[in-house]
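Narrative summary of target 7.
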Amino acid sequence: MSDRSTSRWFLRGCPCCFDPAAMPPDFSPGRRAFVAGGLAAAGTATVASLGASAETKAPIASKRIDVHHHVAPPKWLAEVLGRDLLQPATRNWTAERSLEDMDKGDVAAAVVSVTNPGLWFGDKTQTARLARESNEMMAKLVADRPARFGMFAAVPLPDVEASLREIDYALDILKADGIGVFTSYHDIWLGNAALLPVMEELNRRKALVFVHPTAATCCMNLIPQVHPGVMEYGADTTRAMLGILFSGAAVRFPNIRFIWSHAGGTAPFLAGRIEASVPRLADHAQRLPNGAISEMRKFYYDVAGAANPGALVSLMKLVPVSQVLFGTDYPSGTSRSIIDGLAEAGFAEGELRALDRDNAVRLLPRFA
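Modeled conformation, tokenized:
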């Protein structure tokens, strides 16, 4: 399948709405056999044979950096027990269990963050308190084991003023490695104009910003007995990314280094549709002068929960391996499951080394 024919195939799902000829000719780089064979061999054993030797040929002992690793601060956990989206595994988190899983996967360091159900439950005072208590707990974890842990500090969004104060405290006093945010806060998504001062400050600081999905209020329990993590987390990641792109924030704040969880959710698969919709956007020449895909290629993406052909084929058609980071989603996921999934994907030795460690070191040089 040629590069251009791949782009045409990608958009063929909705010929009434999208013009394949409008796609940029470099959308499908066709860089490696992984992508070319992924669609044809996604469910076959041939892919496994490609990657089985990748891990043995290039063992990367004790060098991986996990950018998607969660903790459960005790005071936070006490207030969120019983809420929707709290995973059972999160309740049982301990630092020792994190280290045990890291050692099983030759993970040198993990950058920790707070996970679902997040911190915002409608009470600004509670949210600010939970953010501060969580950050101080994570900072203590990092101080005790600085070579093993980093932290993405929590912020009490959607409270802008409190978030600005917490960014100052987290980055200047606690020396956090970056800031962690969620895709949405009930009915407010990233890119919303109300959050503009926070984006401005993160851009001024050239912050590393880890974006974790949640389930929006609109879309909880739409299908009985289907957990939002099955589909809604990926969809909300795409909503947030569209908010950043279409609001113009991606272009206006180029110094923010975004890491999108779970291989960018559904966004890579929908990249062709997203690109084709840009001309319909008011002031698109100012908001996205080079289109959406050019900005999406500047983002970083972790492989937590996405070390499988369905996710990786779309992602690796969108970005070079330099934009992809190792992540586990621990304690919901494990390092070994991600390593095994990546081994079956057929990455070359140098690509695995970049994905496992080198790309993260560029963003987090203290782990070099």
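The chain has 17 helices and ten strands.
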